[in-house]
Amino acid sequence: MFPFSIKLFASGIALGYQISTAWASSSSVTSCSTTLTPSNDIKPTAASGYRFGLVATGLTKPRSVVFDPTGGLLVLESGQGVTRLSFQDSGGTCISVGSRKNVLQDRDVSGTKYSVLNHGLALSRDGRTIYASTAEAAYSWSYDSTQAAVSDDRQTIVVGMRTDDHNTRTLLLSQKVGDTLLINRGSTSNVDPEAAVISSGHSQLKAFDLSKVPDGGYKFNTQGLRLGWGLRNSVGIAEHPNTGGIYSVENSVDELMREGKDVHIDNPGEEMYSFASY
Length: 278
Prior knowledge:
Blueprint: E1 8-11, E2 15-21, E3 50-57, E4 62-67, E5 73-77, E6 81-89, E7 95-105, E8 121-123, E9 129-133, E10 138-144, E11 149-150, E12 155-159, E13 171-173, E14 180-185, E15 204-209, E16 218-219, E17 225-229, E18 236-239, E19 246-250, E20 257-258, E21 261-262, E22 271-275
């Protein structure tokens, strides 16, 4: 029996789940004084050797999560901003929220989906800078994890990413190449003819040098290093820890008709891509 558990956190619709290995030592498995109940009928299924526990409720469209240097979990809530959760760990899956604080308030009061933080979230390697995205732009803020607070010095990193569809912008900070932020921008419709024009910037994955951000930010269509093109909506992006190679998963076409039949379910276009290190 291994004397530890591996803790992972995943966000869902207004819920936060913690996952751990089921082979944690018995000393780390305790009965929880408080057991949360999901507010909907969505319940994960644990693979063999794992178990899960519900640790947070009452979130608003949680899209991305990342831990800060002091152990707080930053959660981007679409249309609300970024919330920091601190945890009480009683071992195993017995995790509860000790406190929560809104560190970035960005509520959608205008009714537009383009100007509010809605998906992407990343934290610099030193934990002192938060990056987050709207459908139109990516921004950064100085962050103090000991105070769970951001400064007012918002910097615009990238602009010009608005599309009518697929308006989430996944962010990834490279751990192999310093000062490099990767951003995915999907297509502007289910089937997007404009994506065939490379200068449109549609359906592309790009990398941007954070040490040389121009005034007003980079223009996504014409600036940055293009890593991939023809990527309809690569919501998931990861970097290999040794090689620095980039991987993405593709959310491909919906309602694809062929000879009068919808073939996208039985013959899905979802794929995983590998990009060489850069």
